[in-house]
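Researcher: Sequence recovery benchmark, item below. Answer with residues only.
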């Protein structure tokens, strides 16, 4: 087993076998990152998320070079919204709700322009793309089965938003026995204090949910 180590990971060095490791890029889709999508409809400043696209691109390129498995997720719903419970759709007072028409097509609906992953991070052949109706990527998807088929044991997380879909998925993964690490500068929140709190809570108490590291901490510091 060839083991790599991120020596400066917190709270302790993170050892992994690249052959059994997947990068999971959460929801880097236009609906959250560009004006006119779900994120902006909720009243958020989407530029905070757009700012990490170059960092996620560097991490993606590193993972591809290292031959990690790569998974992209998209928060998305069927066109008839049969997988969007009213409790989700009717929440809050957004300018536009899931399924409503917006400048990038129907909000958070599969196949609409706004549901696409931003061009700079587009999946390439052989990478897994998971459409998920919930915040966690394991809920109501084939992610668990697909990772098992590939023999994946370690997950490295990036994407948005840190405290919602990234953290939820990381907690789901932790409970399923995956060894998880979050790359701090490749994740963002509309609310920076929530990102900072999430990073701290993940690695607290000896790594209660997993590990964290920065791009510069990755093996060879190449990312
Ligand atoms: C949210 C997400 N924030 N991808 N989704 O609704 O974090």
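Model:
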């Amino acid at each position: 087993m060839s083991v790599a180590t991120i020596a400066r990971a917190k709270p302790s060095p993170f050892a992994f076998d690249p052959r059994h490791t997947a990068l999971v890029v959460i929801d880097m889709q236009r609906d959250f990152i560009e004006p006119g999508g779900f994120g902006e409809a909720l009243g958020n400043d989407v530029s905070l998320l757009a700012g990490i696209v170059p960092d996620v691109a560097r991490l993606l390129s590193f993972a591809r070079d290292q031959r990690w498995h790569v998974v992209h997720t998209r928060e998305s719903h069927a066109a008839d919204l049969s997988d969007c419970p009213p409790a989700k759709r009717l929440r809050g007072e957004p300018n536009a709700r899931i399924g409503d028409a917006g400048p990038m097509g129907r909000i958070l609906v599969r196949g609409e322009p706004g549901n696409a992953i931003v061009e700079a991070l587009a999946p390439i052949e052989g990478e897994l793309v998971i459409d998920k109706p919930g915040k966690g990527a394991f809920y109501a998807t084939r992610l668990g089965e697909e990772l098992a088929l590939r023999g994946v044991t370690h997950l490295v997380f990036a994407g948005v938003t840190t405290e919602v879909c990234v953290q939820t998925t990381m907690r789901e993964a932790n409970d399923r026995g995956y060894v998880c690490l979050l790359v701090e500068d490749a994740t963002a929140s509309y609310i920076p204090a929530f990102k900072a709190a999430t990073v701290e809570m993940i690695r607290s108490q000896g790594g209660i949910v997993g590990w964290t590291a920065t791009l510069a901490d990755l093996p060879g510091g190449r990312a």
